[in-house]
Amino acid sequence: VQLQASGGGLVEAGGSLRLSCAASGRTVSNYAMGWFRQAPGKEREFVAAISRSGGRTYYADSMKGRLTISRDNAKNTVYLQMNSLKPEDTAVYYCAADRTINIQAILTSYDYWGQGTLVTVSS
Question: From CA 101, how far away is CA 81, in angstroms rounded?
């Protein structure tokens, strides 16, 4: 499966963005999906994950309450709605697909990765 993340950009602190991850090659309903981010000089970290059906979600504590991950399997797309953004949320955001049933926060559990979309939050 090929993944294409989009929706990043420059936003002021307190603003919102919705990221999209479009899948091609195989239907996204076969995969649990996750979002990760990598800030300059830092390791890639888990942000959110969603099960194949969308019935279960999991969020990083650092962003819990400000995020909503969702998916539209008919459109082969996964979304990440981010609200109340902070300058420390500035990073490249990546979507990833996991062939297992369980939703994971572990980077190495994911089999396919998109190219990333840059989110910059100004203070």
Answer: 23
pLDDT surpassing 90 at residue 62: no
Structure confidence at residue 32 (pLDDT): 96
User: Which residue in the block uniquely carries the two structure tokens 């929706």?
Assistant: 7
SS (H, E, C) 83-104: CCCCHHHCEEEEEEEECCCCCC
Q: Residue 85 has which token pair?
A: 């953004």
Inter-residue contact 94 to 38 (CB < 8 Å): yes
For 30-42, what is the mean pLDDT?
Answer: 96
Closest CA to 33 of 108, 104, 119, 106: 104
pLDDT, tens digit (0-9, with 9 covering 90-100), for 65-110: 999 999 999 999 999 999 999 999 999 999 999 998 888 899 999 9
Sign, CA dihedral 40-115-79-52, equals negative
